[in-house]
Amino acid sequence: MKVRLKFTKEGPVKFVGHLDTVRLFQRAIKVAKIPVAYSQGFSPHSLIYFALPLAVGMSSKGEYLDIVLEKEIEPEWVKDQLNQVLVDGIRICEIFRAPDIKDSLMSLVKAADYQVILPKREFPYLTCEILEKGLGQQQLLVEKKGKKGNKEIDIKPLILGTEVNEEEQAFCLKLHVLAGSEANLKPELVIKALLTDVQENHYFEITREELYAYDKEYIPLDHYGR
Q1: Integer Cα distance of 176 and 161 in angstroms
Q2: Measured distance CA(91)–CA(84) in Å, rounded
Q3: Which of 67, 74, 196, 225 has the most CB within a 10 Å radius?
Q4: CA distance 222 to 212
Q5: Average of pLDDT values for 165-178?
Q6: Do the beta carbons of residue 27 and residue 36 sit within 8 Å?
Q7: What percent of the chain has pLDDT over 70?
Q8: What does the pLDDT look like over 26-54, one tens digit per residue?
Q9: What is the DSSP letter of 138?
Q10: pTM, whole model, 2 decimals?
Q11: 63 forms bridges with which residues in the sheet?
């Protein structure tokens, strides 16, 4: 039996890297006495699989994890047991039986939703019109570092949808972009392309809100195969 978990990662724990997050879940599964299945061989490990690593410093409301269990068990029990022992900031908000398909969870990911908060105190010159004008260009060029040096790329084809809103203290940019092993757009690159004078000391907050599979249309992972 395989269950799929949707969980949040918010607050100080957002600064915990992906490998340490894996260890957090491995330890929580052990403490909660979840009957997880193990691989065969000389160095067996618990069969847990994450969807897409989250960048250090980025919050999320929509991360996913598959757990292979040794036996049939009520998914809600797994959720309740893990939520009792997981660290503050990580909380399982949904759990269900994973669809019976050969594709790995990571290979399913084709797109993602991000929310970028741009505080007005950091970007006093910014307006909705500036953001919308930049997003409306035919090309959105940005310099990207590579093994053979820097090169300019057009990230516009990787953007599936955008929304700009103004709040009292900040501008809110919502991005629906390609993500995963085939094509992956980091939201930081969008900000770099839109605001060419942005510096490392400029503060803005990024939250990943959802991950999507694709089957004729983009489908949130918590709806895929159900």
Answers
A1: 5
A2: 9
A3: 67
A4: 9
A5: 96
A6: no
A7: 98
A8: 999 999 999 999 988 888 889 999 999 99
A9: S
A10: 0.92
A11: 7
Least confident of 80-84, 139-143, 144-148, 198-202: 198-202
Residue 200 has pLDDT above 80, yes or no: no
Neighbours of 205 (CB within 10 A): 14
What tokens were used for 78?
């797994």
Q: What is the DSSP letter of 185?
A: -
Q: Which two tokens stand for residue 202?
A: 């400029």
Q: Which CATH class is domain 2-107?
A: alpha beta
Task: Match 């799929």 to its residue by tokens.
Answer: 4
Other beta carbons within 10 angstroms of residue 139's beta carbon come to: 11
Domain spans, the chain: 2-107, 109-220
Residue 157, phi then psi, degrees to nearest 5:
-65, -15
Q: Cβ neighbours of residue 188 under 8 Å, at least 6 residues apart?
A: 206
Closest CA to 3 of 79, 60, 81: 79
Cβ atoms within 10 Å, residue 103: 11
Same fold, 2-107 and 109-220: yes
Segments in the chain forming alpha helices (H) = 18-31, 75-85, 105-108, 128-135, 187-194
Token code pair at residue 120: 């007005």
Q: Is domain 109-220 given the CATH code 2.60.40 in the classification?
A: no
Quote the CA–CA distance of 28 and 45 in Å, as a whole number: 14
Q: Does 58 have pLDDT greater than 90?
A: yes
